[in-house]
Amino acid sequence: MVDARGAGRKSRSFSVRLLLQFGGPVQNDRQGRGVGFVRSLLKCFSGVTIRAEPVLQLAQAYLHMKLADYDAAADMLALTQTLLESASPKIKRDFLIISVLHRGYIDDLAAVDCASTFEAQVEALDPADHLGRGTLLATVAVAALAAGDVDHTDAVSRRAIQEMRGAGSVLGTNYCFLHLAQGQLLRGRLREAESLFREAMVMAEDNFGKDSGLKALSGTFLSYCLYLRNDLEGSSVVLDSSLDSIETADRFAVLVAPILLVFGRIAGPLVSIIERSSKRISLQLGLKGDTEAGGGPHARSICG
């Protein structure tokens, strides 16, 4: 007779080993396995078991974060933090990276020393840990963007690309190209930004499919870049090609919509493009096509 409890324990033990073998939740996602792999493994465990095992806590925190449940992610990270003193170096490393990513996801990057703190943490990692270093450097790039330090954004994004390539992470490299392009866009170097956004789109389609959310994300930025170059027709075509992926991806519309506001108020013509292309995106943005005397549309908070 099969011992169901023993089989369950063996299955749970195997799942933990499997997660560790593949390098933890960040490694799995950045290598393109996606959150589905982590989600499937976590289904092997009860909530009690997850909260008792640091590697599972971190996997659960990462999954919460990727699904935009940031409060739940913070709670799980706080639990892991209470166990760090006796944790293995691998757990401490994963906790650091996921905690930094969480700060980036919730836009907690306003502190003056934020980028320099993250960079110091990069230097503390093993030089051979290309994925960990690349992930932290990508967050440094975002922090530098938030501070308007485009010189630092450029330098750090290029370092992050090298690390991500060293790790063999196409997904991570793709995101770093986006950060590099955003820095060029903030500089007003529209041709350079357009070239990088197009490269990011091609990379995303070649590796993750023409309907991938990452391609749509790249296309959204490219559309804005073309708009700034007064190529309204080209902007509309690119945005139209991105909308199906944006609207069907889980929670993606909510995450992508604010991107179109990230560089300040959008001028009326681009709002009209968005409204013609997709009523849903207009609603997510909270935009109206009419403009104020100063020239931009009204923007209602997407948080309600």
Notes on the protein architecture:
- This protein has a two-stranded antiparallel ribbon with strand order 1-2.
- It folds into three domains: 19-108, no CATH class; 110-187, no CATH class; 200-304.
- The chain has helices at residues 4-21, 24-30, 35-42, 47-52, 54-66, 70-81, 89-105, 114-124, 130-146, 150-167, 170-187, 190-208, 213-228, 232-248, 252-256, 268-277, 279-285, and strands at residues 287-291, 297-299.
- Residues 1-10, 249-270, 277-282 and 287-304 have low confidence and may be disordered.
- The chain is globular, with a radius of gyration of 21 Å.
- By secondary structure, the protein is mostly helical.
- Helix content is 72%, strand content 3%.
- Helix 3 packs across helix 5, helix 9 (130-146) runs antiparallel to helix 10 (150-167) and helix 10 runs antiparallel to helix 11 (170-187).
- It contains 17 helices and two strands.
Strand order of the largest sheet: 1-2
Q: Report the mean per-residue pLDDT as an integer.
A: 76
Counting helices, strands and paired strands, the structural category is: mainly alpha
Number of domains: 3
- Spans of at least 5 consecutive residues whose pLDDT stays below 50 are 1-10, 249-270, 277-282, 287-304
Tally of strands: 2
Global geometry: globular
**Overall helicity:** over 70%
Largest sheet: 2 strands, antiparallel
Measured distance between first and last alpha carbons: 57 Å
Strand content: under 5%
DSSP summary: helix tally? 17
Query: Radius of gyration in whole Å, from Cα?
Result: 21 Å
Q: What is the H/E order?
A: HHHHHHHHHHHHHHHHHEE
